[in-house]
Amino acid sequence: MAKISSLTTLFLITICYISVTTSAFAPRDYYDALQKSILFFEGQRSGLLPRSQRLNWRGDSGLSDGASYHVDLVGGYYDAGDNVKFGLPMAFTTTMLAWSVIEFGSSMHDQVSNAKAAVRWGADYLLKAAATPGTLYVQVGEPNLDHQCWERPEDMDTPRNVYKVSTQNPGSDVAAETAAALAAASIVFKDSDPSYSSKLLHTAIQVFDFADKHRGSYSDSLNSVVCPFYCSYSGYQDELLWGAAWIHKASGDSSYLSYIQSNGHILGAEEDDFSFSWDDKKAGTKVLLAKDFLQDRVADFQVYKAHADNFICSFIPGANDYQAQYTPGGLLFKQSDSNLQYVTTTSFLLLAYAKYLGKNGDITSCGSSIITSKKLISVARQQVDYILGDNPAKMSYMVGFGNKYPQRIHHRGSSLPSVHTHPSRIGCNDGFQYLNSGSPNPNVLVGAIIGGPDSGDKFSDDRNNYRQSEPATYINAPFVGAAAFFSAYNERS
């Protein structure tokens, strides 16, 4: 990964913060980005598509998933540009979609029903995956073979192997994340569909109990098929804390507070972590638990406010704990593979924390610097604006947004002719002519946020450049909340 000297970075980003005082976008632009960021999920759907499907170049797919194993695993989301259903990123995606609705649903205008439909599509699948007690189905598709083909999901003929974790082969990370997703989704539907909400929460509690009693990483149980794709590099401790926090939020059951208080120190609660992703939930958990301290003054959770402050301060130039790296154009940069996933998750946490601080008249102290909620909103806004086109390349990294956006994204369904325009089958190897073509993708995957530019703000619009050009559900999910926030944000408020 290319490095920028810390002094140069600090100088450039400080200048950037000083000079950029107003956003390049109006509320209507953020609303456009919001509705497109939700629409993207329809392009990732697996299963029998509903009549309400709006991205109509897609067709039904994976209709026999699980059948040979005598389990119904039809539905859910393809995680990115391939045709595998990976449980860990799908569950995280569902959690973040739900959190977006929980925190910012009131700012979603007429898009809240579409956002809730996106949550439900993920939650319905996770309910199926968790239907058998003591077992959780965590993957459909053999990724090594899937990646040897370039074919539409409607045509796929690679093995649809099913993989699970169980009491004998545990997977506390994927199970606890699934519990978090179901619990968060239960909050989304608590008022509009109480029976569904109750089912989600009941299943979340069962899955969490399984995750906690039978501890172990799914990377150990299923190494050859989940690694290196979605290895649980951070271990399972962070997911156990995250899952408990979400079940407490959904249920109000004080036993989960006791669990957090008793187990926090051995589950990584005392470690500061400066990224938030499908793999590592520590920062997200601390922000979520900090809300309990800020709102209810639960004394035992003051430590989470301190850790959340450390996380926030790491992104503020000039703060004592500042350690983030930014590109010369002002984009948060974590790594060369799919960097925008960290940008969208960080932006979401900054805005959620700004909301918690603002509601309770609180502030964040970064050494001698006092950071207000408006400052956090300003930092997040710069990141959101960069994604939408306020960057050196003047390119939107959301497909279909603005006048200039990537045309050759690394995505099978988008890059191959639609089943509606080309009904005959395109075989495994026949699809590579489209992968290697220089032509724009024939199907626009509206709303997809891709991996994004490198540490020097450079981007290659090349279908083979998957590190930069592949979209993913877990990039978009937190952006839904951020776009909703700015679509209703009044700078004078």
Are there runs of 5+ residues with pLDDT below 50, and where?
1-21
The count of DSSP E runs of length 2 or more, i.e. the number of strands, is 5
Helix content: 40-55%
Q: Structural class of the helices, strands and pairings?
A: mainly alpha
The top-level CATH class is Mainly Alpha
Q: Rg from C-alpha positions?
A: 21 Å
Q: Outline the biggest β-sheet.
A: 3 strands, antiparallel
Please list the strands of the largest sheet in the order they lie side by side: 1-2-3
Order of helices and strands: HHEHHEHEHHHHHHHHHEEHHHHH
Number of domains: 1
**Alpha carbon gap, first and last residue:** 40 Å
Which second-level CATH architecture applies? Answer: Alpha/alpha barrel
**CATH domain fold name:** Glycosyltransferase
Gross morphology is: globular
Task: State which percent range the strand residues make up.
Answer: under 5%
Mean pLDDT: 92
| Quaternary structure annotation | single chain
Output the number of helix runs. Answer: 19
InterPro entries: 6-hairpin_glycosidase_sf, 6hp_glycosidase-like_sf, Glyco_hydro_9, Glyco_hydro_9_Asp/Glu_AS, Glyco_hydro_9_His_AS
Keywords: Carbohydrate metabolism, Cellulose degradation, Glycosidase, Hydrolase, Polysaccharide degradation, Signal
EC number: 3.2.1.4
GO molecular function: cellulase activity
